[in-house]
Amino acid sequence: MIINHPLLGPCDAQEFTYKGDARLIDRPDGMADGADAAFYNYAYLRDNPAGQHRELWFHEQGDRSWLVVTRNTVTHEITQVELARDVARKSGRSA
Amino acid sequence: MRYSGFRVIKEALSGHKGWTPAWRDPEPKPQYDIIIIGGGGHGLATAYYLAKEFSQHRIAVIEKGWIGGGNVGRNTTIIRSNYLLDGNEPFYEFSLKLWEGLEQDFNYNAMVSQRGILNLIHSDAQRDAYIRRGNAMLLNGADAELLSAEQVRREYPFLNFDDARFPIKGGLAQRRGGTVRHDAVAWGYARGADSRGVDIIQNCEVTGFRIENGQCKGVETSRGFIGAGKVGVAVAGNSSRVMAQAGMRLPIESHVLQAFVSEGLKPVLPGVITFGAGHFYCSQSDKGGLVFGGDIDGYNSYAQRGNLPVVEDVIEGGMALFPGLGRVRLLRMWGGVMDMSMDGSPIIDRTHIDGLYFNGGWCYGGFKATPASGWCFAHLLATDTPHPTAAAYRFDRFEKGRMIDEKGMGAQPNLH
């Protein structure tokens, strides 16, 4: 698989380490009420769809950026690649 | 019809005109006591033991394609019970004991061959770990034997003993491990279940569950609604998709695992060997092909085919261990979709919906578990209590911190 890195252009997926569902960006608040249930959901449960899947890849052998890759889990086709930083900022996770 | 040597001779003398289909092809009835979703090894074994050991009636197995077309037909056929942890080892040893009597039990030649499995040791630390594992196996009634490098050399002289990075220092052998003709497992269970009245309904895809007041009443399928008192789901690889129809999210990701078979060779490999320094395992089939595999590809996939980097990784592991492999031509390779759970261990449990039961999360160790998985799931469906050897395979173990994590990798399914 070739991942089209937003900054570096096409890169072999072998340069990356796979993390999993991009929802892992949305880490719950550990101090909130019901945090134990929220963390059980966060850490262990997955949608695991057959089809479009947004997922985190780490460019470990490259610029060490985290990417959000939209990939089809049935065909392995990659349709969108974003910097995870941009995705996190858009959802208000950091300044 | 019972199969026997006498029967084969009789049929040979009468032009093989007396053979009948091994199972029926029935129309679905409107209502069953128990429906099993998934006509793979685990689903068919569950139906077989429900009918035979737990005296249940009015059972159906529903399969979206043809029986045995999923992972029971796509694995590397290895059976073993060389686990470490308490939650696992009694279960896998129960399974190995069932394999030992299976062919007599269901009157079908599954070519169970206890040719032994050998986990190779490449360092002192690994020897310590395997001694501990071997002791855990012995404590649970399994067999285990620690071999020196010289003993390994006598049995497998062609391995790369003096490799500079990964010299072979010995091995942990389980003599009762081995291989089984995988398709025949599905066919044997199907025939045994069918002869006890189980309806095996192929080309019937489940499209939804009918759930009323927290009670599962049956399944919607591509061939209409089928009512059931209890529904058991055994669809590993597609567990998340099927259970999503009941509104559940699972502690599972689907990943692709590749396997390979070489051209046929004369007998070279007496048992099953596993490389301890990389991920590579290999046996020789009765047709002569070397059957081998390694790691999962490492990203979520439902594709039943993998990519080339893992092919290279597996072959490198093979070459490091077994240099003669380089002269052998690869014949076929394929992929199967694995339910990778969050701790590397399976789930056999009730769900929060009454009448809906789940069996899955087998990671890439489901084939060896087939008989015990079927037995324990049948026990759960018939009695509503877990079988003692499968009592740890609960849904809530992640929430309660009771993981069964053989590799100690935590909630990162592609590392188990």
From TrEMBL, chain A:
Short name of one Pfam family: SoxD
Gene3D superfamilies: Folate-binding superfamily
GO MF, one example: sarcosine oxidase activity
GO biological processes: tetrahydrofolate metabolic process
Name of this chain's protein: Sarcosine oxidase subunit delta
Automatic annotation (TrEMBL), chain B:
Keywords: Cytoplasm, Nucleotide-binding, Oxidoreductase
Cellular compartments per GO CC: cytoplasm
SUPFAM superfamilies: FAD-linked reductases, C-terminal domain, FAD/NAD(P)-binding domain
Molecular function as annotated in GO: nucleotide binding; sarcosine oxidase activity
Signal sequence annotation: none
Domain FAD dependent oxidoreductase: 33-380
Keyword Iron among record annotations: no
One GO-annotated biological process of the protein: tetrahydrofolate metabolic process
Cellular compartment(s): Cytoplasm
Predominant place of localization: cytoplasm
NCBIfam families, alphabetized: soxB
Annotated protein name in UniProt: Sarcosine oxidase subunit beta family protein
Source organism per UniProt: Roseinatronobacter bogoriensis subsp. barguzinensis
